[in-house]
Specification:
three-stranded antiparallel β-sheet; mainly beta; single chain; 0% helix; 57% strand; four-stranded antiparallel β-sheet
């Protein structure tokens, strides 16, 4: 799992996806794009919980995945109330069905 760009601002930008699958190779987004590669043996629901450095959960993103593929999930840099988050470091906690989980770090610069 990784995100790009990182660090990122909350302005609109165009990103190019590697291994885009059924997604357009070039997309205009706000925030950052989270890329995950799912092993063939894993399928099901995915959640990405995003925390600030004080441990407060600011956003939860849900998706479904099928194993053996690459997935791209956009985080627009907003919290669960639709408000832009502050500049700083954020920790992403990816959970995939079956108990698989990973942590990753993101930085927001305004």
């Amino acid at each position: 799992i990784m995100n790009f760009p990182n660090p990122f601002n909350l302005k609109s930008k165009t990103v190019t996806l590697q291994n885009p699958g059924s997604n357009p190779a070039s997309q205009t987004i706000e925030g950052t794009m989270i890329k995950l590669s799912v092993p063939a043996s894993i399928s099901g629901s995915v959640s990405i919980e995003i925390y600030n450095v004080t441990g407060e959960k600011v956003r939860t993103i849900h998706s479904d995945v099928v194993g053996g593929s690459h997935y791209y999930i956009n985080w627009d840099g907003k919290n669960d109330h639709g408000e832009q988050v502050a500049s700083g470091v954020y920790i992403g906690h990816l959970k995939i069905a079956g108990g698989n989980e990973k942590f990753f770090k993101m930085a927001v610069l305004k």
